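User: Can you fold this complex?
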Amino acid sequence: MNTLLPTSTAGSLPKPSWLAEPEKLWSPWKQEGEALHEAKRDALLLSLQEQSLAGIDIVSDGEQTRQHFVTTFIEHLDGVDFEKRETVRIRNRYDASVPTVVGAVSRRKPVFVEDARFLRQQTTKTIKWALPGPMTMVDTLYDSHYRNREKLAWEFARALNQEARELEAAGVDIIQFDEPAFNVFFDEVNDWGIACLEKAAEGLKCETAVHICYGYGIKANTDWKQTLGSAWRQYEATFPALQASSIDIISLECHRSRVPMELMELVRGKKVMVGAIDVASNLIETPEEVASTLRAALQFVDAGKLYPSTNCGMAPLARSVARGKLSALCAGAEIIRQELSAR
Ligand SMILES: [Zn+2]
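Assistant: Here's the predicted assembly.
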């Protein structure tokens, strides 16, 4: 990136109400068949337009073509029965009805590659594409076949790697793996989570990112955060190994959260997508609030490696709120760019 402090989002943005019921996770589609395909594409274009108008430098599809950041990818794999649903506890936090792994998992066809190609045709900006990470995938389904989280994660890593290579070929500049599970299962992260993540990113020439957050602004997550005490030190358990990993960019939650800023020091040398927008509140940040978070982060991240971003996806927010937050993010980043150039 040539731009200093290039802005981006963690990934998802709200969907228009004609595509899916707003302000809801796993919201059902409102169209079917060809009409749904067209509606998804229209929503992707709108989402790109909103990012561009706000001044976002690294754009995405706003995850408009997927119902959920994890399950939509899983849905496209062989070996997963989507009709056979079980209720599991996700990230030790909340129950959800999820699909079941009933046989060997494999990716016989591309999942998002056509969508990525479509986005590439619409813009010359840097584009980032989000995929779920292997560990978070394992944590978002019921496994009646492998009955072993690590084994299943390696299978997912292979499928993700096939998808990632094709996304790269379609013109994606940054491939991001979402691993909120990295903030929960620390032993597993260090035993096999990061190794599986690297497998998913193996052989890619484009940049790679891992997004680790405290989740969407839904009640189960905000309740969980209440139990974490005054300093959230979860990143401390995984950052040293991530610093030594092959992943280029670490995307983390920061703004209005209790993550001690100095933990960023643990990934010194990596590019850091600093969450400077709170996705768990409808309150729109002022540019100055964004700037003050970025200013604080600059103590631990070199300016050339700081990517202002959002704490997490904004899918569950109202569109007007998300738009306001995108603008605030860009205006806040601009304040810091001015400060840096005045030095
Ligand atoms: Zn997130």
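The pocket of zinc ion is lined by residues 10, 180, 211, 213, 312-313 (CB under 6 Å). The chain is about 35% helix and 20% strand.
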